[in-house]
Design brief:
This protein has about 300 residues and is mainly alpha-helical. The chain contains 12 helices and no strands. It has one domain: 3 helical TM bundles of succinate and fumarate reductases (Up-down Bundle), CATH 1.20.1300.
């Protein structure tokens, strides 16, 4: 009884609440980043040129005189996102079951209650565990190669580098973890609660499910497009899209030049030559001999009449 009184008189720490706040903040930033990141990556569905345009603008190419951008911008972005990722993961591990016994207790309670929110939390635990490893690999690749965001280089990494299984697992984990996390943040902090909390919950659940389906669809489609590009580009691994596009433009320019020269040659060969007969006739008409013969012919009838 004395020990209970002593424990109850202790000042409660606010540190868990502060850690929850930091975890929620980093989760919100990372969730929005995932939305934007998947949209940018899925621009490959519109074509290699569209993805190249997006990637170069992410490298701040619009601030560059040459238009090549600054890969160092990607380097710093990876550092910021990687730091937030590590902080969020370390704070999330606090609530993971750390032993098989705890895991069995949670599974038994989930089966007994069949509570949807608890099931979503468990999905976040599993996907978060997967992301801790798969996401770290992806961040390291981008950290070591900040200038490799390119249609061909990305496709080569996925196919020739045999990274597609990792990216497929990471894609599913990120979409589930991120969207479920943003939904649970709204529920935890009462965002968009409105006057009718039950109706707001159903609306957010519907939005969550639609966002998951949308991002899974465009993510898988984008990954398939990268796989097709990588298979067709196996013989030219390491080639950049910009160099390939420049070479194609030069070939087209040469073909256009040859076609224009051929048309000019054909036009010159088809020009009609001036007829020498016409010139001769004109010379004859203008010659003095012809003029004298015409005057004699005109004067002959006059002389006969005088005789």
């Amino acid at each position: 009884m004395d020990s209970y009184i002593i424990e109850s008189n202790k000042k409660k720490s606010r540190m868990p609440a502060r850690l929850d706040l930091v975890q929620s903040g980093t989760g919100l930033i990372l969730g929005v980043f995932i939305w934007m990141h998947l949209l940018f990556d899925s621009s490959i569905i519109l074509g290699k040129g569209a993805f190249h345009f997006v990637s170069k603008n992410l490298e701040l190419a619009f601030l560059s005189d040459t238009g090549h951008g600054f890969p160092i911008a990607v380097f710093f972005a990876v550092i910021v996102i990687g730091t937030l990722f590590i902080i969020h993961a370390m704070l999330g591990v606090r609530k993971f079951p750390i032993s098989w016994k705890q895991h069995r207790i949670i599974r038994d309670q989930m089966q007994m209650m069949n509570h949807s929110e608890t099931n979503l939390w468990y999905i976040q635990v599993v996907t978060g565990f997967i992301m801790f490893f798969a996401g770290s690999v992806h961040l390291y690749v981008m950290f070591a190669n900040p200038g490799s965001i390119d249609p061909y280089l990305s496709a080569d990494r996925i196919v020739s580098g045999h990274m597609w299984p990792l990216y497929l697992v990471l894609l599913v984990s990120v979409v589930l973890h991120g969207n479920i996390g943003l939904y649970r943040l709204c529920m935890k902090w009462g965002w968009f609660a409105g006057k009718d909390a039950r109706k707001s919950r159903k609306t957010l659940q519907t939005l969550k499910n639609r966002l998951i389906m949308f991002y899974l669809t465009i993510g898988i489609l984008g990954l398939l497009v990268f796989v097709v590009i990588g298979i067709n580009h196996r013989d030219n691994v390491g080639e950049r899209y910009a160099a390939h596009a420049t070479a194609i433009e030069q070939v087209h320019a040469m073909e256009d030049t040859r076609e224009s020269e051929g048309v000019q040659t054909l036009e010159e060969s088809q020009e009609p030559e001036e007829s020498p007969v016409v010139e001769d006739n004109q010379d004859l008409e203008e010659s003095p001999a012809m003029e004298e013969s015409q005057e004699l012919e005109e004067s002959q009838p006059v002389e006969e009449s005088h005789e």
